[in-house]
Write a structure and sequence with these properties.
The protein is of the alpha+beta class. Helices cover 39% and strands 27% of the residues.
Length: 343
């Protein structure tokens, strides 16, 4: 079934591991849902997508499977991704009278050609007329309001759910980039492992994510924060409640955060001196959900000796970038990945 048969409106998608955001040209963000789909095992039918499906994670009966079909920023389960995209874009199409649109999709910069084609295929199957891909750090830079076309260096760190993207941008292109498959999901897993090891308590991913958002920190906080955690006691198998603090969560995430810092430093070491001087003057732009971790900007500043600026609404940077590309597709065509491949 083709979803889009009305007047065409162009669409931008941030196909994130944790969340999918959709924007319509001229309308702004029209959908922001977790990248989760619940499928009936027997029939393969969709029961729910987005927030509704996320509620089901870890709570489904045998007959239903709730999955996150994207892993590390790329498609891990092709069929589930297709079903999820079709369902989410159908919601948008119905609400906003969308025809067969041109679609710009943000993808990780470390994506392989096979993975690129899987994304294109999924979006085309959902009924798009034409699909363009843009690297997430480029989209995040455009969404942050940077003028990517000027002959001056900018650095963007985009910490999403599945990948951390570090890129140096100049003259409408990525000069060098580093895509690290350590990001929000990995930090959640670090918290789960730490609580299991240190507190003998098993917690789920949803709760790990909540504790990361509420009390997670990259450096010790002036005022320590606490949070209650509920889980299953490893020794007795019974429910148990504990209190954790921001210092504990900082220790839990320390190793992964250090790897992100090292990736940023490695990128800076390879940056040509002229561009490094530009970055020193402008500062490093921090986007993505990871930008919300308390003290991460200060830690990066201390380690790189450069100013670091988390942007406002860092979660929306990539999708805002896709919208700006749609507004100016002829001028910004050079930043699209597959238009280079087609030349």
């Amino acid at each position: 079934m083709k979803l889009f048969n009305l007047a065409s409106k162009d669409i931008g998608i941030d196909l994130g591991t944790a969340n999918i955001l959709v924007t319509i040209k001229g309308k702004g963000i029209v959908l922001n849902e977790p990248s989760v789909v619940a499928i009936e095992k027997k029939t393969g039918n969709i029961i729910a997508t987005g927030s509704e499906a996320k509620e089901m994670l870890g709570r489904t009966p045998e007959t239903i499977q709730a999955v996150r079909p994207l892993k590390d920023g790329v498609i891990a389960d092709f069929t589930a991704t297709q079903l999820m995209l079709k369902n989410m874009l159908a919601k948008v199409a119905k609400r906003y009278n969308v025809g067969r649109p041109r679609v710009v999709v943000g993808v990780p910069s470390g994506i392989t050609e096979v993975e690129e084609r899987a994304v294109e295929e999924s979006v085309l199957q959902a009924g798009a007329r034409e699909v363009f891909l843009i690297e997430e750090p480029m989209a995040a830079a455009i969404g942050s309001g940077l003028d990517v076309g000027e002959p001056s260096g900018s650095m963007v760190i985009d910490i999403g759910g599945g990948t951390t993207e570090v890129a140096v941008i100049s003259l409408g292109g990525i000069v060098l980039s580093h895509s690290l498959r350590i990001a929000g999901d990995e930090l959640d897993q670090d918290i789960i492992n730490y609580i299991k090891r240190e507190e003998n308590l098993i917690i789920g991913q949803t709760q790990a994510e909540q504790v990361k958002i509420q009390v997670g920190a990259a450096m010790p906080l002036v005022t320590k924060m606490n949070m209650e955690l509920k889980g299953r006691d490893l020794a007795t198998g019974l429910p148990k409640t504990i209190i954790v603090n921001s210092d504990q969560i900082m220790i839990a995430m320390q190793e992964s955060i250090q790897k992100i810092v090292e990736a940023v430093k490695a990128c800076l070491e390879k940056t040509p001196p002229e561009l490094a001087a530009d970055i020193m003057q402008k500062g490093i732009v921090l986007t993505g959900g990871g930008a919300l971790i308390k003290g991460l900007d200060k830690l990066l500043m201390n380690e790189t000796k450069m100013p670091v600026y988390p942007i406002e609404d860092p979660l929306d940077a990539v999708v805002r970038g896709t919208e700006r590309v749609l507004d100016n597709i002829e001028k910004l065509k050079t930043v699209l990945m597959n238009s280079k491949r087609r030349r």
